[in-house]
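Protein in question passed on here:
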Amino acid sequence: MSKILIVAETLNDALHPTTAKAVACAQAIGGDIHVAVFGAGVKTAAEDAAQIDGVTEVLYVQNDENMAPRAATLAPQVVALAGEGYSHVLAANTTTGKDLMPRVAALLGVPQVTDIMTVHGPRDFDRPTYAGNAITRVQAPGDFTLVGTVRTASFTAAKLGNSASVSDKAVDAELPTHTRVVELKTGGGDRPDLQTAPKVVSGGRALGSSESFDIIFKLADTMGAGCGASRAAVDAGYVPNDMQVGQTGKIIAPDLYVAIGISGAIQHLAGIKDAGTIVAINNDENAPIFEIADLGLVGDLFEIVPQLTEALGS
């Protein structure tokens, strides 16, 4: 039977919702599922992880270095845990997971299965290739610990209601001292996190300037939505790159995705492949985004978006 270790993602001692999606992947694999939470004294995230269905035990690893988690110091701790007979070590394929898990794989001396989107068996998975245009089925040999990241857009979060045990876990790992956190800044304000928001509004290069992007922010705030952007808008400097949606940005799966002034480049479409309802607003009726949109509105976004914002806010 598989013995699976999920590396939880946390921020300010809170459990990130993507952890429950990684657990859903582990449920599909089947086996004994443990969640490792790395903290510095506050167990809120560990207690939250214990409520996720399918989790049999939560391991709380306390270390002052975990107050500001970073891949360089987390990786040796994960590797120390992985040596306790785990067949799989998984994390969400978020920015944190993409940074952490290759280090874990390198320290273990094993390859990594990245962006798992379908589970066919304990070591048999689908993953996207060629910007999501092709799905590759990969099979990993069974003679090493499988390190992988989970495409969160492809899995529905495991439900809550469990009451797994939470135990303190000491790890014997030498942590590097060559990195430290100087400052943490967030650019999204009070808006929902882009990767977990049920509603997302994104703008494209058609906005024309960073100032014009304010109409996207206003609509997103009116809807209580996360806010994203196309790569073209990011490259043009309208918004920071942490807002980029697409193959080279963030892969998202909101219930509602509103694409404004976005033509629909294939790399952008790869990032919203698992979105629920897609609404497109564009003045080019031949824009590729309309080929995949559930609802489309052809017209001037500078007229339509303010009207839409006003209507939704009234």
Remarks:
- The first helix runs from residue 18 to 29.
- The two ends are 56 Å apart (CA to CA).
- The chain is about 25% helix and 25% strand.
- The chain has a mean pLDDT of 93.
